[in-house]
């Protein structure tokens, strides 16, 4: 079943597919290195991405999320859209600007991406995204907006985003770090000529990191679309994490008859302010496990038994920053 991304946004489905782990050979998800085998050539990665995209589309997923920094994610998505003969509106495509991929297809690169929220980067990356995705591009987001980058006060960037919005592309921002809620509340106030610039936010919320929840509820109440990423905490809320911290999730998942990742995704789907929850699956098998979240009947008992998993935001983001690329 589809819904709109916010009060007046494009059509989406409750579960979407993010391509962060599919568009490049390395990522920070636990166990990601075992997902692709020895062949991580561009052609092999494209075939695997297409297989997951096919499985998602076949299961009713209609929102797909990429970024300029996700290696060749936009190119893989574009070639899949063309191969399947999908037209603009058949699916909703979102992408992001602000990071440049620098790993040169290496997992052991010293730096995988470089952040720059300046106007030249926006113009360059928007042209690159449009060259690949064309009229399929329905949502364009600032990638990991922060106070430090100054992007929310850059009048030239904001004016360019307004022009993009006037061309019919929804404009949003993604968030990261312990200050997600504060940055979002600042973004809710951003106006150009009295009109809001943004209509969508993508943020991390999961059973471990819940700090942005109140601000996300405010964005929803303001008519924004709310996309949740990292719902399984880069693998920490899956069966790959065997530590004691997430033991209650694994125990409850076994009782419920689903995998831990499905239960973690179901927890996000149960938030009344969520428009889309992203699966970050690297394989068809992972995607199928994630999709089972749609059949979980969330309850007050499940909520209460998993409430204790929550960590302080600073603790969560400290752990995330230590996860290795693999």
UniProtKB/TrEMBL annotation:
Stored SUPFAM superfamilies: NAD(P)-linked oxidoreductase (SSF51430)
Record InterPro entries: AKR2_Oxidoreductase (IPR053135), NAD(P)_OxRdtase_dom_sf (IPR036812), NADP_OxRdtase_dom (IPR023210)
Xref: Gene3D superfamilies: NADP-dependent oxidoreductase domain
Family annotation (PANTHER family): D-THREO-ALDOSE 1-DEHYDROGENASE, NADP-DEPENDENT OXIDOREDUCTASE DOMAIN-CONTAINING PROTEIN
Domain NADP-dependent oxidoreductase: 46-308
Protein name: Aldo/keto reductase
């Amino acid at each position: 079943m589809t819904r709109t991304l916010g009060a007046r946004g494009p059509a989406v489905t409750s579960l979407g597919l993010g391509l962060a782990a599919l568009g490049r050979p390395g990522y920070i998800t636990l166990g990601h290195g075992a997902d692709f085998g020895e062949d991580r050539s561009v052609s092999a990665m494209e075939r695997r991405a297409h297989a997951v995209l096919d499985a998602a589309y076949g299961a009713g997923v209609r929102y797909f999320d990429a970024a300029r920094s996700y290696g060749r994610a936009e190119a893989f998505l574009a070639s899949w859209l063309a191969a399947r003969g999908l037209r603009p509106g058949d699916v909703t495509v979102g992408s992001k600007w602000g990071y440049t991929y620098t790993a040169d297809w290496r997992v052991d690169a010293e730096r995988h991406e470089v952040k720059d929220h300046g106007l030249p980067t926006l113009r360059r990356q928007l042209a690159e995204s449009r060259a690949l995705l064309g009229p399929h591009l329905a949502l364009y987001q600032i990638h990991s907006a922060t106070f430090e980058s100054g992007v929310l006060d850059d009048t030239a960037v904001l004016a360019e985003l307004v022009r993009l919005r006037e061309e019919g592309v929804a404009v949003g921002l993604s968030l990261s770090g312990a200050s997600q809620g504060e940055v979002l509340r600042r973004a809710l106030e951003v106006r150009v000529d009295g009109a809001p610039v943004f209509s969508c936010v993508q943020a991390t919320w999961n059973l471990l990191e819940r700090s942005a929840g109140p601000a996300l509820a405010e964005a929803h109440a303001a008519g924004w679309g709310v996309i949740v990423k990292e719902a399984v905490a880069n693998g920490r809320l899956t069966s790959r994490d065997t530590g004691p911290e997430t033991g209650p999730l694994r125990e409850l998942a076994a009782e419920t008859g689903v995998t831990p990742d499905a239960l973690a995704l179901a927890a996000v789907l149960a938030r009344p302010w969520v428009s889309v929850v992203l699966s970050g699956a690297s394989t068809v098998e992972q995607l199928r496990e994630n999709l089972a979240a749609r059949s979980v009947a969330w309850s007050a008992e499940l909520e209460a038994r998993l409430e204790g998993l929550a960590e302080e935001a600073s603790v969560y983001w400290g752990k995330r920053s230590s996860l290795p690329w693999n």
